Amino acid sequence: MTVSTRNHRLRPAGAWFEKCGWKPFAFQKQAWKAHLEGKSLLIHSATGTGKTLAAWMGPLLDGLANPIDAESWTKVRGKPASPPLMALWVTPLRALAGDTLFSLEQATAGLELPWTIESRTGDTSAYIKQRQRQRLPTVLVTTPESLTLMLSYPESTEHFRFLRAIVIDEWHELLGSKRGVLLELALGRLRTMRPDLRLTGISATLGNLEQALEVLVGPGSDRPTEIIHGRTDKKMVLSAAIPKNMERFPWAGHLGTRMSAPVAQAINSAATSLVFANTRNQTELWYQQLLQSDPNLAGLLALHHGSLDAEVRRWVEDALRAEKLKAVVCTSSLDLGVDFSAVDQVIQIGSPKGIARLLQRAGRSGHQPGAVSRLLFVPTNALELIELAAARKMIQRGQLEAREPVDSPLDLLAQHLVTRGLASPYQRDEIWLELRRTFAFSKLSPEELDWVIAFAKHGGDSLSHYEDFKRLEENEDGTLQVTNPQTARRHRMSIGTIVSEVAIQVRYMTGKNIGTVEEGFISKIKPGDRFLLAGRLLEFVHLRDSIAWVKKSKGTPTTVPRWVGGRMPLSSQLSQGIREQIEATSNGVFDGVEMKAVRPILELQRRWSHLPKANELLIEQIRTREGYQLFFFPFEGRLVHEGLATIIAHRLSRHRKITFSMAANDYGFVLQSAIDPNVSFGEIQSLFSKEGLMDDITAGLNATEMAKRQFRETARIAGLIQVGYPGEKRSGRHLQASSDLIFDVFQEYDPSNLLLQQARKEVLRNQFEWERLQRTLDRIHQCELVCRNPLRPTPLAFALLVDRLRERLSTETLADRVRRMQADLERAADAK
After folding, report:
1. If you write DSSP's letter for every residue of 554-584 in order, what string do you get?
2. CA-CA distance, 438 to 440, in Å (whole number)?
3. DSSP-derived secondary structure for 715-738
4. Strand, coil or helix: 370
């Protein structure tokens, strides 16, 4: 194709842009040209710079230049209605489908293409899903789970016969998770059906672009590819709300909602704001506190998180688009892809714990080319200001976190083999080649594949006598297939990798749905208890038919709902940035508003102990009324520190009769004992050896019980346990008991079971960031150890002491105790 021909084919897009009063960016035209040349792409550009049109115009221009003959069009009442399915748009969140539909329809209509565009997600009605099984639109917006479900039907080969392009939105959100592998497997199947398929991934926040593209298209692909680097000059203003009284002994959440007044002031200074909190219970608490700080926000402030009823969430989204709200307090439920062009600013409550997440959320404001993104950072702990300063430096350098791909999850492979068998019979060698072309299973051995096939056929050696585990059948010609209708129905209900606590519907006595809480929370409360949900104070009446019945209440909450998954560890990139900031302060450099604000804290830390350089590990030994305290400060994130604490406590106890209790945060960890551990400098150096690492961490914790909990996820994905059909959902206790039973059977009668091995590996990866922990030990091995024996707890140590107390004291008692401790330490700090 000549340059003039390519430019000619781009003219319709340019004409439509001009009609809209826009001018395409160079990276958008580059993406369109690359698509027309048959390339698969990864488009990496800042949020709000036009990535959607960069990805979508290519397929539209191709449709204009190479229309499908009308004889192949979808027919309604015997007449051609629209071209068959030509493009898929995959989104990680079904909540994004509505906004995506609008954007795609606008551009498609602008180029006057006769295409139909629909969505298919978990929210799509049964009627539409059934119609789509007979007649698909030209363009389908869907999720990885819905796409996989479509591929499980025999008609899928015919449905995807004309498919030309797939766009994967927010690719970074899928990469590095089993959901990403689920999509990899679906893409591998579609590439087999359509070898000339063009894939386009979209991301704004990725540090490993080359690898991300390889995962998208598959390793060793002979198809041409290209990374499109979009605009990086989007203006972003990051500022912080500095506490008026900077306490020199901060602790996790010590600022609480005391910053609500400046947050309310910031909300009133802008037309529209998104207020992000890191957890759902934080959104509930901040929503209430903001209304107390400024009652005038009533009716103008809303709440949005994943446990609210879908109807409530849609109302909030529509009201925000219509500019009927001043602000929405939300979680990550609104930090992806949803276009709210009216948002003037983002307010981030607490550290987002990662550079990419900070950028993603900041980009929700000024979400259009040329607009300025504004984010106000509100610390819940004074030391979090260091994290903002570190993130700003990393952003200036262009250093973002990498998303590491998941390697060979065999539970998901077992699910996939059954899904493939639902669609049509297949040969073992056929699926082997298809799997090897995916990044996740590129290193899969023949022995592992044969084991998983046998497992899908009869449940493995220890379950082969039970009919429920016989899902995949082998025909006389050696092909593998699923023919049992009950197996097919049960499997289709379980497709996917999202495994969470069993959700309990919360409903007014009048019958109106409010949202959901986790079963574990409901099981611990009693009638009359009051809790917050959807911004309302509710009184628990009773639990019947797996529904928590409630009524409106007055007063204050007696308990707070907790949802699993709220605790985010510090990313490795941000950890590095914090160590660099601390090193600068050790040299007397306090650069920026945030670092100047925390200067009194850090100068006291230096006076009483030490401020470590990036190549130093600070260790403090202190005796308090609770016992002997041994503090370590690697600044590597909470999960890594929990792993290190487990390892070091075990290694210290091998040579002395001593018991440790421990606590960890993002900056370090503490080991507490009733007797003096008498640790020498030379022994401390040996504590961080990688020799015997796996044995020591396994011995230092209840590895079997942790693996059992992890195995519940493995068992559900692999199809060993079922959540039940709609209307007959099984309880979390029932599911845990079922998975525990299977775990015990495997451990006793099939100890080499590969799913057992996977569960143990995933415990280490999910609980302690195993690979990062090993890298941390390598780094510490190169560090200079700095040991100090301060007379009293230092500012860095204080937060860890509070975390130790938190485990033993009620909230009110803890607050009183902490205030007394702070007062004593402040008096000591003031004494020269």
Report:
1. -S--S-----TT---PPPHHHHHHHHHHHHH
2. 6
3. HHHHTSS---STT-PPPHHHHHHH
4. coil
Tokens of 579: 């160590």
**Distance separating alpha carbons of residues 768 and 647, to the nearest angstrom:** 11
DSSP string, 686-697: HHT--TTHHHHH
What is the reported pLDDT for 584? Answer: 96
Q: Report how far residue 186's alpha carbon sits from residue 144's, in angstroms, rounded to the nearest whole number.
A: 8
Rounded to whole angstroms, how far apart are CA atoms 148 and 150?
5
Give the count of beta carbons closer than 10 Å to the beta carbon of residue 294.
18
Residue 482: predicted pLDDT: 95
For residue 569, the number of C-alpha atoms closer than 13 Å in the C-beta half-sphere is 25
What residue has token string 């290694």? Answer: 651
CA distances from 545 to 130, 375, 506, 616 (A): 29, 44, 11, 58
How far is the CA of 653 from the CAs of 271, 606, 784, in angstroms?
59, 31, 24
Tell me how far CA of residue 582 lies from CA of 250, 383, 387, 589, 598, in angstroms. Answer: 16, 11, 10, 9, 11
279 phi, psi to nearest 5 deg: -135, 160
With CA atoms as reference, report the closest residue to 443 among 410, 478, 408, 491.
408
* Cβ neighbour number for residue 558 with a 10 Å cutoff: 14
Cβ atoms of residues 514 and 501 within 8 Å: no
Q: Which residue reads 């929370």 in tokens?
A: 521
Instruction: Say if strands 627-633 and 79-82 run parallel, antiparallel, or are unpaired.
Output: unpaired
**Tokens describing residue 102:** 């609008």
Q: Choose among 4, 404, 488: nearest CA to 181.
A: 404
Q: Cβ(534)–Cβ(514) under 8 Å?
A: yes
C-alpha torsion 123→125→131→137, nearest 10: -40
Give the model's pLDDT for residue 442: 95
Contact 273, 267 (CB under 8 A): yes
In the sheet with 530-533, reading across from the earlier edge strand, the strands are 513-518, 503-508, 547-552, 536-544, 530-533
Which pair of structure tokens corresponds to residue 577? 């940035």
Q: Exposed, middle or buried, 580 (CB in 10 Å: 0-12/13-18/19+)?
A: middle
Three-state secondary structure call for residue 376: strand
Which tokens is 343 given?
Answer: 């948002």
How far does the chain reach from its first CA to its final CA, in angstroms?
Answer: 79
- Regions of the chain where pLDDT drops below 50: none
Encoded tokens for 381: 């702990």
DSSP 153: S
The answer to whether 328 and 318 have CB atoms below 8 angstroms apart is: no
Q: How far apart are CA 296 and CA 753, in angstroms?
A: 61
| pLDDT value at residue 414 | 96
Q: Tell me: the pLDDT tens digits for 123-164?
A: 778 888 888 888 899 999 999 999 999 999 999 999 999 999
Bridge partners (DSSP) of residue 349 are: 378
* pLDDT reported for residue 135: 86
User: Which residue is associated with the tokens 């704004």?
Assistant: 204
Identify the CA nearest to 210 among candidates 397, 403, 32, 52: 403
Task: State both tokens at 44.
Answer: 């990496």
Total residues belonging to the chain: 832
Dist. CA 816–CA 811, nearest whole Å? 9
Structure tokens at 781: 């091995």
Q: What is the pLDDT of residue 734?
A: 56
* Paired tokens of 410: 């065999």
What count of other Cβ atoms lies within 10 Å of the Cβ of residue 465? 9
Task: Report the half-sphere exposure of 88 (CA within 13 A, side-chain side).
Answer: 29
**Residue whose tokens read 């209440």:** 553
Q: Facing residues of 619 across strands?
A: 632, 787
- SS3 call for 28: helix
Per-residue pLDDT, 270: 93
